Amino acid sequence: MQPSPQPSELERDYSMHPAQSSITRRAALTAGAGLLAAPVLAQPVCDLGLPGHVEGPHVWRDYDQDELDAAYNQEFYQPHTEAVNSRLSALSFDLRVRRGYPERVAYGEGADEAMDIYKAPQAGGPVFVFLHGGIWLYLDASLAGFAAEMFLDRGAHFIALDFSPVNELGGDLGRMADQVQRGIAWVARNAATFGGDPSRIFIGGHSSGGHLAGVAMTTDWREFGLPSDAVKGGLLMSGIYDLEPVRLSWRKAYIAFTDAMVDAMSPQRHLDRINAPVVVSHGTLETPEFQRQAQDFANALKAAGKPVQLVVGRDYFHQDMWETLGNPYGPNGRAALALMGL
């Protein structure tokens, strides 16, 4: 069996490419078997999921515990995560050597409450605030510098935000989201001081950073003394938008899930608070749950009458989708520039 047909274009307007909410874990694993049987040059080789797994009792939908754990662990679906991270680290260092180191600015008193500001050559441009991923535990702003050059070359400022790992916050994603919100609010208040246009603040995040960006899109910025439309748009890349299945997965070992946290930190449950355009993206070689989360969120936004676009990157793994943020012809780079009108 061959993988299900995918869109022939990496980016399409949502109205032309509806999210396919019918994707299931079994369909994705069946497609994965097709990938393994295909000629080596036709598709990337990847052992998807849990081949040969003996299914146990279901713990969520049609997943048993091992399957659910694998669906929220990219290591089961992307065999080269560390290679990609190493490449992005090298590219980020190269960018700093060639274009200059970013300005490091604190937005709070905590050791991790700071940001890297990559300034565009001219003042007055829009600002893109990026939230890194790393399962809410790892990575930092320095690794995101590789993407800055694409924005700088088009007159936009690029900011990579740092925040504490969740295990240093008592396992509370709400405290992490608070850091992110305060960081974005600092940018909105102070954009003019580094040459940014405070009326054109955009945000984006990948993986767990995509989740945090989704939470930020539901924020009432008036609580921070800002206009309700302080953020003009969000690019949510390969993220998680409803935490219910996540709390049942292996990630409960380091996140102190409660009913209140799951509700507050699930953007899909607060669509009424979103008042700016949203782009949701995922790759077709990501885990079936990450694909479903993106598609379900895009469907929910459309049903709620919100401006939304779904971007599907064909034959992209999870970390590969992040790498495309620095490529103006890649799915996320193209989407970011379109969102910002660049």
From TrEMBL:
PROSITE patterns: CARBOXYLESTERASE_B_1. SUPFAM superfamilies: alpha/beta-Hydrolases (SSF53474). Residues 115-219 form the BD-FAE-like domain. Gene3D superfamilies: alpha/beta hydrolase. GO terms for molecular function: hydrolase activity. InterPro entries: AB_hydrolase_fold, BD-FAE-like_dom, Carboxylesterase_B_AS, GDXG_lipolytic_enzyme. The keyword Hydrolase applies. The keyword NADP does not apply. Keywords: Hydrolase. PANTHER family: AB HYDROLASE SUPERFAMILY PROTEIN C4A8.06C (PTHR48081), KYNURENINE FORMAMIDASE (PTHR48081:SF33). This is Alpha/beta hydrolase. It comes from Rubellimicrobium rubrum.
